[in-house]
Amino acid sequence: MTIKIGDTLPEGQLAEFIETETEGCALGPNTFNVRDLVKGKKIALFAVPGAFTPTCSAKHLPGYVKFAAEFKAKGVDEIWAISVNDAFVMGAWGRDQKATNIVRLLADGNAAFVKALGLDADYSKSGMGTRSQRFSAYIDDGVVKQLNVEAPKTFEVSTAEVLLSQI
After folding, report:
1. Contact 164, 137 (CB under 8 A)
2. What is the tens place of the pLDDT at every residue in 6-64?
3. Known catalytic residue: 25?
4. Catalytic residue among 34, 56, 61, 82
């Protein structure tokens, strides 16, 4: 079953490559419980089929970086990018895109979280296996307030501009 507006995010874990060690977060990959991360926060979330892929790197992530201040001005606490990649790849993608400390690059290495959302996709024909569908969502304290799922091979409804206009 696919998650919908009004639903609470399912249990799940995502990994993030931490660039600077802090109390409670070691340098390198750290795993976080999604429900803990969203508690009491407003999150602009978007998911991509893969880090470093053409549309994801040229358009999707850059849009959220570009409009980060506008999201914050509307009360968004964090912007998340989720992809079925490992935390090392997501960390490298964030550095490459100059998105570190602007967007949280969260890895769903085994696609468990996107499967729990019902938003996984089979990219086996492209040699990529199970991935995430391209989508965006606005999450308030764990509840889905907006959800924009792209049709295959499109990039129209999950842009930063569209999600920003819905908040």
Report:
1. no
2. 999 999 999 998 776 666 655 678 889 999 999 999 999 999 998 888 787 778 999 99
3. no
4. 56
